[in-house]
Amino acid sequence: MERGSRTFAGFVVLCSIRYLSSIPSGAFIGINIGMEFMRDLPSANDVLFILKSHHVTHVRLYDADHQMLNALANTGIAVMVGVNNDELHKIGENQTAAADWVNKNVAAFLPKTNITAIAVGNEVLTTYQSGAPHLVPAMNLLYHALVATNLDLKVKVSSPHSMDTIALPYFPPSTATFNPKIITTMYLYLQFLKNTESFFMLNAHPYYGYTTGNATSSIDYALLKPRLARSKQIVDSNTGLRYLSMFDAMVDAAYYSMGALNFSGMPVVVTESGWPSIGGANEPDATMENAQTYVTNLIHRVFDKCGSPSQPQFPTSTYIYELFNEDIRPGPLSKKNWGLFYTNGTAMHSQDLIMVKGNRNSSGCMVFCVAKKDAKESALEAALNWACGIGNASCGAIQKGQPCYKPNNLHSHASYAFNDYYQRMRSSGGTSCDFWGTAIITTKDPSKISAKGSLIPLIFHIE
Ligand SMILES: *[C@@H]1O[C@H](CO)[C@@H](O)[C@H](O)[C@H]1NC(C)=O
Ligand SMILES: *[C@@H]1O[C@H](CO)[C@@H](O)[C@H](O)[C@H]1NC(C)=O
Ligand SMILES: *[C@@H]1O[C@H](CO)[C@@H](O)[C@H](O)[C@H]1NC(C)=O
Ligand SMILES: *[C@@H]1O[C@H](CO)[C@@H](O)[C@H](O)[C@H]1NC(C)=O
Ligand SMILES: *[C@@H]1O[C@H](CO)[C@@H](O)[C@H](O)[C@H]1NC(C)=O
Ligand SMILES: *[C@@H]1O[C@H](CO)[C@@H](O)[C@H](O)[C@H]1NC(C)=O
Ligand SMILES: *[C@@H]1O[C@H](CO)[C@@H](O)[C@H](O)[C@H]1NC(C)=O
Fold this sequence. Notes:
Keywords: Cell membrane, Disulfide bond, Glycoprotein, Glycosidase, GPI-anchor, Hydrolase, Lipoprotein, Membrane, Plant defense, Signal. The protein contains 14 helices and 14 strands.
């Protein structure tokens, strides 16, 4: 089978189709850790604690900070490291410099630190034009350095692009094309991805699409609201595909732009997407509520469905932007406020966020293991103690002061621990969700049934 060719069964699109070797099977949610513009840097170990207590499985670093890479050792967390834009020139012209970079920042940390990708520069074609001629040469030389160290199958090389690489208007997506100004470099970039079985990296921010757009779309469409009213959905008249969110339209615009250059079969991974929680007087859409809504809906979007409308076979794995606010980032107030957590680990959007792991069963439903509503308190208590003790469930997050402590009741804590145990057992082949009759499998996510209704799991982990 040709790489990436579709295996549609009639009109039924299966989400569980084999993915390219370059993409871990299944969709994942990761998080961006940008700390360049923070006044008070948390220690690498503090960052790690936050990542672990929220079951984060994938992170993107904007550089290759050695303290972070050391802290991430032996965690299994998949790490994308970054080459800074101002390093491109040197690396693109000098094989020795490229080899040095790979040796110092990648080879030296593998296999302990699970480095899986190098993001070469960030938004180079739209924000760092002088680096553009060096981009693909740098990618090539880094790739050769990986080949030389036998790491090319383990570590993919790509480069994140902004939506500005696509000519406006990018709706309908089927008509999207890359901006003519950058097309030569884009072509070489795509050729590189094709040759090395890598993937397209896209920074997709509906916040900007909405706030700088022509008010042709509703905020609900931008915020990925589920069950969007039909009148707010947008249909691509060329393909008949119905767009329920700007996020999907952006991802498809990238696929169609690649298609216009005759490239296909390469997945888009969204390397940044988020929403600011605070903005200046002229930035009314940057609110805590919108930020929480967007991030929550984004996580559900990535996990609940197939990929984008035109490419359902590629789930849209996404790195949320970003872990912390970058309080000294230049620019408008909104630029500084995309973080999900305070550096002390408290979630910014809600004190009550509950993080759970979920798995799909073989019919593709998300399943969770939770405490039964009518379970006897004494039995529940014993089961909880077993899960957190002998059972080895990771119960740090439900301790006092930790992110999943609230709501503080036996039922919620037991559900958290049961689910943690169950998901891990499932990953290694086991399946029991029983806990002496106190637990039950459900497809509703436990945060919704255990708490006030608006509570949503933040980071899922799907096998
Ligand atoms: C590294 O991350 C990838 C992607 O999540 C995962 O498949 C792999 O098992 C991880 N490797 C280790 C050694 O944990
Ligand atoms: C290439 O890079 C290496 C290592 O960084 C450096 O020692 C060397 O001087 C560079 N060569 C040129 C021609 O710049
Ligand atoms: C807004 O409309 C103008 C004029 O029709 C067009 O040139 C521009 O590309 C549009 N912007 C967006 C973001 O679609
Ligand atoms: C794409 O392929 C078609 C059909 O083979 C061809 O007509 C077209 O010129 C190609 N476009 C590009 C940009 O290479
Ligand atoms: C964490 O920091 C934030 C902001 O400074 C503060 O509001 C919150 O109470 C702190 N949380 C804890 C547990 O100290
Ligand atoms: C998956 O879960 C759903 C909902 O609980 C259930 O209806 C279905 O039978 C399950 N499939 C398998 C194969 O267990
Ligand atoms: C918990 O971990 C210990 C030590 O790694 C192991 O011996 C034990 O079998 C584990 N228990 C379960 C229920 O997995």
